[in-house]
């Protein structure tokens, strides 16, 4: 191979070879960004199921199973429309996150300061034996449960938490959902756990706390109206008689994990935009 042919090959690569590389990089970036959005949510389970169905479809095509192939083709056609309808809130939330300016620049987090505020509010209620049910949204969205209550959308404060759970008020018996540094909604309905092994001494609030954590990754705080004791529920398990300092540490840890996750997304997106 002479110098002229090497030079021509190099020119051809410069002229045409870089385009597929850029296309592959863009597509990989898009898929990775989508993965970061859905990681840790209920959507990731659906994606795994779709990948399994797609793998079965490819195998049926490879080994020539016409019935399975035809069936899966028709399932995919229906699923395309069904997924858009089912996960419309997630799509909207994801697009909103992409459009936010802080997402494309540096993040500023105030969640760390919320841990002592929330723990102070909880134990102020416990001291007065005012029942409370508070869910902290983590990576799984709680929109379905937010829609069952009254939208608050206000910054978290001790005074507001105490007001929402004041006895003989319309929102007293429902649950409060906290999203980051804001109270998303109050008076929300949580699913009651149906497990037979739960102690009969536990009331509706405790069963609702366990029930929500069986279906989501939320942390739920319960204040007993009878004893004033504070309990927390996570992953379907209930821990009772929690101290204020312990509760503040647990809440701080949750916010720190969320911050790490968001920082990971931010750094990745910033790298993409810097390359362009």
What does this structure look like?
By secondary structure, the chain is an alpha+beta fold. The protein folds into 2 domains: 3-104, no CATH class; 111-258, YojJ-like (1, CATH 3.40.1700. It contains 10 helices and 7 strands. The chain has helices at 3-38, 42-62, 66-86, 88-99, 101-104, 114-127, 143-146, 158-164, 204-215, 244-275, and strands at 132-136, 150-155, 175-179, 182-188, 219-223, 230-234, 237-239. Strand 5 (219-223) and strand 6 form a beta hairpin. It is elongated. The two termini are 36 Å apart. Mean pLDDT is 79; it is low at 101-109 and 265-276.
Secondary-structure map:
Layout lengths: L2 H36 L3 H21 L3 H21 L1 H12 L1 H4 L9 H14 L4 E5 L6 H4 L3 E6 L2 H7 L10 E5 L2 E7 L15 H12 L3 E5 L6 E5 L2 E3 L4 H32 L1
Parallel strand pairs: 1-3
Antiparallel strand pairs: 1-5, 2-4, 3-4, 5-6, 6-7
Please name the defining characteristics of this protein.
single chain; 59% helix; alpha+beta
**C-alpha Rg (nearest Å):** 25 Å
**Tally of alpha and pi helices:** 10
Strand content: 5-15%
Could you name the CATH topology of the largest domain? YojJ-like (1
Order of helices and strands: HHHHHHEHEHEEHEEEH
Largest sheet, in brief, is: 7 strands, mixed
Distance between the termini: 36 Å
| Strand arrangement across the biggest beta sheet | 2-4-3-1-5-6-7
CATH domain class of the largest domain = Alpha Beta
The CATH homologous superfamily of the largest domain corresponds to DNA integrity scanning protein, DisA, N-terminal domain
Mean pLDDT: 79
Structural class: alpha+beta
The CATH architecture of the largest domain? 3-Layer(aba) Sandwich
Instruction: Report helical residue fraction.
Output: 55-70%
| Count of discrete domains | 2
pLDDT < 50 stretches: 101-109, 265-276
């Amino acid at each position: 191979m002479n110098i002229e042919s090497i030079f021509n090959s190099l020119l051809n690569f410069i002229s045409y070879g870089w385009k597929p590389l850029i296309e592959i990089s863009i597509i990989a970036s898009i898929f990775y960004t989508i993965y970061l959005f859905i990681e840790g949510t209920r959507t990731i389970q659906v994606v795994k199921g779709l990948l399994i169905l797609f793998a079965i479809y490819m195998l049926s095509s490879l080994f020539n199973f016409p019935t399975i192939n035809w069936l899966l083709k028709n399932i995919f056609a229906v699923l395309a429309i069904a997924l858009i309808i089912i996960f419309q809130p997630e799509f909207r939330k994801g697009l909103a996150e992409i459009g936010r300016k802080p997402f494309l620049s540096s993040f500023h987090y105030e969640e760390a300061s919320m841990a002592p505020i929330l723990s102070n509010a909880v134990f102020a209620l416990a001291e007065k034996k005012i029942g409370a049910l508070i869910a902290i949204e983590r990576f799984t969205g709680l929109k379905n449960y937010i829609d069952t209550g009254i939208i608050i959308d206000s910054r978290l404060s001790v005074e507001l938490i105490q007001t929402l759970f004041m006895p003989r008020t319309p929102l007293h018996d429902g649950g409060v959902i906290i999203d980051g540094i804001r109270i998303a909604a109050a008076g929300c309905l949580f699913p009651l756990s149906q497990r037979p092994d739960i102690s009969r001494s536990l009331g509706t609030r405790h069963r609702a706390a366990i029930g929500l954590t069986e279906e989501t990754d939320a942390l739920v705080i319960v204040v007993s109206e009878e004893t004033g004791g504070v309990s927390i529920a996570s992953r379907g398990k209930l821990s009772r008689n929690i101290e204020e300092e312990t509760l503040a540490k647990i809440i701080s840890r949750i916010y720190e994990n969320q911050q790490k996750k968001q920082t990971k997304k931010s750094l990745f997106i910033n790298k993409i935009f810097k390359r362009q």
